[in-house]
Amino acid sequence: MKTFFNKKVETAPARTIAKTIALAGSLSRIGTTTQCIQIVKYLKLMGYTVCYLEFNKSNYIEHLKETYEEYKEVEGKIIFEGVDLFTKENAHKINELGYCYCVKDYGSASNENFESLSFTEQNKRILLLGTKPDEMKYAEDILEKYHETDYIFSFVGVKDRDDILEQMLDKKNCTYFAEYTPDPYSYLSTSNSTYRQMLNV
């Protein structure tokens, strides 16, 4: 509250602007949404307020509502297994509710409707890649296009990881590997060191 000429004037409280962590996959079904949820779980574990934002056209949240009954719908968000989820239509509520972080799921970077410019404007950017023969071409394309980005490889066995790091050349220090995660909402503590180094929070 400020005072001008002895008259009290109400001022609006400062709004918290959430820091954004954007994830996109080189193609569909590469584990992007799973990594988004795991990062939300990690940041909550670290004591931050954080939410998930579906910034793509997969209709993931709608499918979740159709599949499970154990969700709540409050203030424009869906709450499921301790995770606050927002659709793109309700994204404006995120800063209103004062979250520290917003993890944005951009879906597949190979889709025609991928919002490339928006992705590059986020505070932190992470790309999901794969090493199977049908995934390598997409991985090569995305590595050429996006820079100042961290990389997570999905579905890579431990014995193959050193070879992948060598192939990443100057990007090896910002390359990580996803743990096997059959349930996105069950956080894997084995990922702690990866997220600690990658997110630096």
Kindly describe this structure.
The protein has 201 residues and is α/β, with parallel strands linked by helices. It has a single domain, classed as P-loop containing nucleotide triphosphate hydrolases (Rossmann fold), CATH 3.40.50.300. It is 29% helix and 25% strand. The chain is built from seven helices and eleven strands. A nine-stranded mixed beta sheet has the order 5-6-7-4-8-3-9-10-11, with helices on both faces. A two-stranded antiparallel ribbon has the order 1-2. Strand 10, helix 6 (161-167) and strand 11 (175-177) form a beta-alpha-beta unit. The longest helix has 14 residues, at 32-45. The chain is globular. It starts with a strand and ends with a helix. The model has no long low-confidence stretch (mean pLDDT 92).
What share of residues are in beta strands? 25-35%
In DSSP terms, counting alpha (H) and pi (I) runs of 4 or more, how many helices? Answer: 7
> What's the arrangement of strands in the largest beta sheet?
5-6-7-4-8-3-9-10-11
What count of structural domains?
Answer: 1
CATH level 4 superfamily: P-loop containing nucleotide triphosphate hydrolases
Give the low-pLDDT segments. none
Overall mean confidence score, pLDDT: 92
The number of strands is: 11
The string of secondary-structure elements, in order, is EEEHEHEEEHEHEHEHEH
**Main beta sheet strand tally, sense and closure:** 9 strands, mixed
Task: Measure the end-to-end span.
Answer: 32 Å
Helix content: 25-40%
- The whole-angstrom Rg is 19 Å
CATH topology tier name: Rossmann fold
| Class derived from helix and strand content | alpha/beta
CATH architecture descriptor: 3-Layer(aba) Sandwich
CATH domain class: Alpha Beta
